[in-house]
Design a protein that fits this description.
Length: 91
């Protein structure tokens, strides 16, 4: 089963199995975090400090203070794993 992995920081997208994503260094469930629960969703190259999770938990921002991209990330996380199915369009 392949899923679509989107880096919330740089926007990089790859279609991978969970094992491939984990071995490549993606921070994504089920190995890092839990489907539907907000945590970092990043590629192997990006720091978590720019994630929606870090904005909420480390910088103590409210949802309304997040960037549009960070809000979109949270909407996507709440729809997991369905939102990770390849072939679904972004909007
Ligand atoms: Zn990235």
């Amino acid at each position: 089963m392949k899923y679509r992995y989107i880096c919330e920081v740089c926007g990089k997208t790859e279609i991978l199995t969970p094992e491939e994503a984990y071995l490549a260094g993606w921070d994504y469930p089920p190995f890092m975090g839990t489907y539907g629960v907000v945590s970092a969703r990043t590629c192997p190259d990006c720091p978590i400090i720019h994630t929606a999770w870090a904005a909420l938990m480390m910088k103590h921002k409210t949802y309304m203070e997040l960037t549009d991209n960070q809000k979109e990330t949270i909407r996507r996380i709440r729809g997991e794993p369905g939102s990770m199915m390849p072939g679904q369009s972004e909007e």
